[in-house]
Specification:
The chain has 15 helices and 3 strands. The chain is mainly alpha-helical and about 375 residues long. α2 packs antiparallel against α13. The chain has one domain.
Length: about 375
């Protein structure tokens, strides 16, 4: 038993694990004070964390060559699951995002946050000596497939996160600035066409971002209530479980997408500074590990997973603060949800596995 623990200790990065666990703990504390009846939510979240830790442990002991070899297969499996969602998905609030497996619901779009970076990193590792415009366009095509399938659900927030994780790898792989600037110009010129093809609720969310009081009881309600919750926390918060916006049910989706508003109301400005510091330390540590990687695959995958986590954190907090439209995106390690928690812990496990085998793929 002692030998197993010593072997496990050598496999993990203590600073990264400690920061991750502390954020998860803060999430559990916030969830337990987010409503008058949270016993089932806490039990389910503990189960989600337990399952995530099992996947995490398996991954840190997994040879990265296995991840590298099976990257295309894992990508195709996730694409297949996204197609199944379109036909057999569980619908909730007007969106099909989950596949039901008994008592367990799987959200394949969350899995794509891992399998797409794996696939694109595999592609550039395989052809690292033949990087060309054709290879970049191949990568872009592969990115567009899952992005389109997720948009059909519809899930704009997750599709943006998936696209970002893929395009970041293309950028790091050495795409020319001329192509980047040209793409930005095309995107700007295409904005009227993009606006026309947006769903009505998506257009309303963008308008709501500019002025949530245009429709305070409709599309602006979520933003207004979350901003009230954040502001009412003051310097030191109202105290654990004492958030009036939450306990009086003014704040919607308090356990999932709006968990940060609950935390802000209960722990105030100084509590927000603490969680900000933890998130920044988490991302900083991931980038330090990425800098020590010795292969194209390891570097690209680690940075992509790190930026994917950072982007989800940034967009979620900005969404709740009224800085970006409401897109329905969970806060990593804190929001209630099985697939999100498992994928977040799996990402950390993959990063640690790559860190343990810095020279394995390179050689």
């Amino acid at each position: 038993m002692i030998k197993v623990l010593e072997k496990y200790k050598k496999r993990i990065d203590i600073p990264l694990l400690a920061i991750t666990f502390f954020i998860i703990f803060m999430g559990l504390v916030t969830l337990s004070g987010s409503n008058l009846d949270t016993s089932n939510i806490i039990i389910n979240q503990v189960i989600n964390i337990f399952v995530g830790l099992i996947i995490f442990t398996i991954l840190i002991f997994t040879n990265p060559r296995i991840l590298f070899s099976y990257a295309p297969i894992l990508f195709l499996i996730t694409i297949f699951l996204l197609i199944l969602v379109h036909f057999f998905g569980v619908e909730s609030n007007g969106a099909k995002r989950w596949l039901a497996f008994g008592v367990f619901n799987l959200q394949p779009s969350e899995l794509m946050k891992i399998t797409l970076p794996l696939m694109i990193a595999w592609l550039y590792q395989q052809y690292q000596n033949k990087i060309s415009l054709r290879l970049h366009f191949t990568a872009i095509f592969l990115i567009c497939i899952p992005v389109y399938l997720v948009l059909l659900q519809p899930d704009l927030g997750t599709s943006i996160m998936i696209a970002l994780s893929g395009f970041l790898i293309i950028f790091l792989a050495g795409i020319s600035w001329r192509l980047i600037i040209s793409s930005m110009i095309v995107a700007i010129l295409s904005s009227p066409l993009i606006w026309i093809n947006l769903h009505t609720y998506q257009k309303n969310r963008i308008i709501n971002m500019l002025d949530p009081f245009v429709d305070p009881l409709g599309t602006g309600y979520h933003t207004i209530q979350s901003m009230i919750a954040i502001g009412s926390g003051g310097g030191f918060g109202k105290g654990w479980g004492e958030g009036s916006q939450t306990n009086l049910n003014f704040l919607p989706e308090a356990n999932t997408d709006f968990i940060f508003a609950v935390y802000s109301e209960e722990f105030g400005f100084f509590g927000v500074l603490i969680i900000f510091a933890l998130f920044l330390l988490l991302i900083f540590r991931i980038f330090i590990l990425a800098n020590n990687m010795q292969s194209t695959f390891s570097k690209l995958l680690t940075v992509s997973l790190g930026v994917s986590i950072f982007s989800a954190i940034f967009v979620n907090i900005a969404m709740i603060s009224g800085l970006v439209p409401i897109v329905g995106l969970p806060l990593p390690f804190m929001s209630y949800g099985g697939t999100s928690m498992v994928v977040s812990l799996a990402s950390i496990g993959i990063i640690m596995s790559l860190n343990n085998h810095k020279t394995l793929i390179a050689n």
